[in-house]
Amino acid sequence: MSLIVRDATLEDAEDILAIYNFAAINTTAVWTDGPADLASRRAWMSARQEAGYPVLVAMKGRQVVGFASFGDFRPFPGYRHTVENSVYVGEQHHRLGVGRSLLAALIERANGLNKHAMIAGIEAANAASIGLHASLGFAEVGRMPEVGCKFGRWLDLVFMQKRLANGVRP
User: Fold this and answer.
1) Model confidence over 133-164: pLDDT tens digits?
2) 148: Cβ–Cβ under 8 A, 6 or more apart, which residues?
3) pLDDT computed for residue 1 by the predictor
4) HSE-up of 112 (CA within 13 Å, CB side)?
5) Which positions ≥6 away from 9 have C-beta within 8 Å?
6) CA angle (137, 130, 65) in 5-degree steps
7) What's the pLDDT band for 165 if we cut at 50, 70, 90?
8) Per DSSP, what are the bridge partners of residue 74?
9) Domains and CATH numbers, the chain
10) Is 159 exposed, middle or buried, given 0-12, 13-18 or 19+ CB atoms closer than 10 A?
């Protein structure tokens, strides 16, 4: 079955929520202490889309198997050409190219919006995400030890960056 990446709709919010909550409860990919609710995921989707940013889903048949988005890196005008991405793949679909397809689509969208750089903030032990980003041209640009905590331990944050190929001028 082929993979299709498309813009998400509010009808996808429950599937996005399920993938997000699995990561929030069981992994260090999301630095929260509990699950989100449907209203908050719908509000997050609407805010991203109203800002002109994509929320994408990866579909296998009729099943949402992953989602991705990007938003402002920081809320100050000087950062207006830089975005930060988020990519989540359902547990049963890891290492099948879903994350790569989603991230490649995000990069394309960021170029289309004349963004200059894309940032990823990744928990340092998440070798799969670090490898995925590196495979698409991201480079580690910073490492912040023990800036987060979850599951009773300190977490390190790795920042990776990709300069986009659109020639935007400051």
Assistant:
1) 999 999 999 999 999 999 999 999 999 999 99
2) 31, 123, 154, 155, 157
3) 72
4) 9
5) none
6) 95
7) confident
8) none
9) 3-163 (3.40.630.30)
10) middle
